[in-house]
Design goal:
The protein has 82 residues and is mostly helical. The protein is elongated, with a radius of gyration of 16 Å.
């Protein structure tokens, strides 16, 4: 269960970090065009991220451990390739 908790926590941090990066980039690009996100758009995006976190947190450990070790760092090359 320790490895499952570690991998789940890493996945949640990755989703959160990517969400922040994508949101900051899209808001800055839209700001340059003089456009802003509406309340409904931000609410829907936040609810989608909340659902991602919910589904990841509901994951259960597998019966057999994988031979592959969990990632050592939050961002790795393989993460962007997948």
């Amino acid at each position: 269960q320790g490895r499952c908790a570690l991998v789940t926590t890493y996945q949640m941090f990755r989703i959160l970090a990517l969400n922040c990066l994508v949101s900051a980039y899209s808001m800055s690009v839209l700001y340059l065009d003089g456009v802003k996100y509406g309340d409904t758009q931000m609410t829907v995006a936040s609810l989608a991220i909340t659902l991602f976190f919910f589904f990841i947190s509901r994951s259960t450990p597998l019966k057999q451990l994988s031979a592959e070790r969990p990632a050592a760092r939050l961002f790795e090359v393989g993460f962007f390739v997948e």
